[in-house]
Amino acid sequence: MMQVLPIQTSATTTECPPTGKLIVLTGPSGVGKGTLMRSLLQRHPQLYYSVSVTTRSPRPGEIDGKNYYFINRSKFEQLVAQGEFLEWAEFAGNYYGTPRETVVNQIQSGKLVVLEIELEGARQIRASFPNALSIFILPPSFEELEKRIRGRGQDSEESISRRLVRAKAEIAAADEFDIQIVNDDFEMALAAIEAAIFE
């Protein structure tokens, strides 16, 4: 059952309006979630994208407040203690979380809200939003996923090894989600996501 914010008073507000919906996009690191999400938002500006909070450093070209909200660990832990996150997880030595209040307000106002999050966070969302549409993005093969991660040139060998070990466990969880889409052909994968959201 959705947790309603204290400002809501009517018992009927515990249910989302028919048009409001939460869409969760997840999959292993390097599978192309971010690229698919950017194209989806360009094509459908009516979608509300929830910007995550993270303790990791910005990558080249990333903008605070657009790609992520970048904060330090102590501030993140303070927000966790205050119950400010809809979900949060630690991944590759950094925290990631979804701000609760904005997402709940947007859904209750009838918006389609999309999240691009890691597996652990996606599981937390399913527990609190059982009606959310969950989409798992798969690589064409594990070998292709490794090639993509290495091709980014952003991670140390140790970090790549950790990501690959974690990716195997994440791929094994794909069946937990409503829809699985293989990101082999980018346009076909994007079209499949659109079909799932707007059917």
TrEMBL record:
This is Guanylate kinase. PANTHER family: GUANYLATE KINASE, GUANYLATE KINASE-RELATED. Pfam families: Guanylate_kin. Its main location: cytoplasm. The keyword Nuclease does not apply. Essential for recycling GMP and indirectly, cGMP. Its EC number is 2.7.4.8. Keywords: ATP-binding, Cytoplasm, Kinase, Nucleotide-binding, Transferase. One of its GO terms (molecular function) is ATP binding. One of its GO terms (cellular component) is cytosol. HAMAP family: Guanylate_kinase. It comes from the Bacteria. Belongs to the guanylate kinase family. SMART domains: GuKc (SM00072). It is found in: Cytoplasm.
